[in-house]
């Protein structure tokens, strides 16, 4: 999977928020806030093809988390990003 063009992570008032821009996203009216670990994953995979395994690696490299727990969390994040149309 790959994060679609037209989405950018920004920090606004201390919150990690996904901003949509460009004509293809003109009707995107959802505000998406990411917690710190989801933002870490976003920054690790944005701009390239990635898998859930890549997301897990990014999470485990940054935090002390068991791979099984990281896999479950990353699968949920990937599913949510897909449902929201981010990738």
Provide the residue-averaged pLDDT. Answer: 91
For the biggest sheet, the summary is: 3 strands, antiparallel
Alpha-beta content class: alpha+beta
Residue share in helix: 40-55%
State which percent range the strand residues make up. 15-25%
Topology pattern, helix = H, strand = E: EEEHHH
Distance between the termini: 6 Å
Q: How do the strands of the widest beta sheet line up side by side?
A: 1-2-3
Low-confidence stretches: none
Number of domains: 1
The coarse silhouette is globular
Radius of gyration: 13 Å
Describe the protein.
This protein is α+β, with helices and mostly antiparallel strands and 87 residues long. The protein has one domain (7-83). The protein contains 3 helices and 3 strands; from the N terminus they run βββααα. A 3-stranded antiparallel β-sheet has the order 1-2-3. α1 (36-45) packs across α2 and α2 (52-62) packs across α3. The longest helix has 17 residues, at 67-83. The chain is globular and about 40 Å long. The relative contact order is 0.19. The model has no long low-confidence stretch (mean pLDDT 91).
List the helices and strands and how they pair.
Blueprint: E1 7-12, E2 15-20, E3 32-34, H1 36-45, H2 52-62, H3 67-83
Helix pairs in contact: 1-2, 2-3
Keywords:
three-stranded antiparallel sheet; 3 strands; 87 residues
Short structural description:
By secondary structure, this protein is an alpha+beta fold. 44% of the residues lie in helices and 17% in strands.
């Amino acid at each position: 999977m790959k994060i679609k063009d037209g989405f950018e992570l920004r920090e606004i008032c201390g919150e990690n928020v996904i901003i949509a821009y460009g004509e293809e996203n003109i009707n995107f009216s959802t505000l998406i806030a990411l917690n710190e670990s989801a933002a870490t994953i976003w920054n690790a995979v944005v701009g390239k093809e990635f898998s859930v395994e890549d997301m897990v690696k990014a999470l485990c490299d940054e935090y002390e988390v068991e791979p099984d727990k990281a896999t479950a969390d990353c699968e949920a994040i990937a599913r949510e990003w897909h449902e929201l149309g981010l990738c």
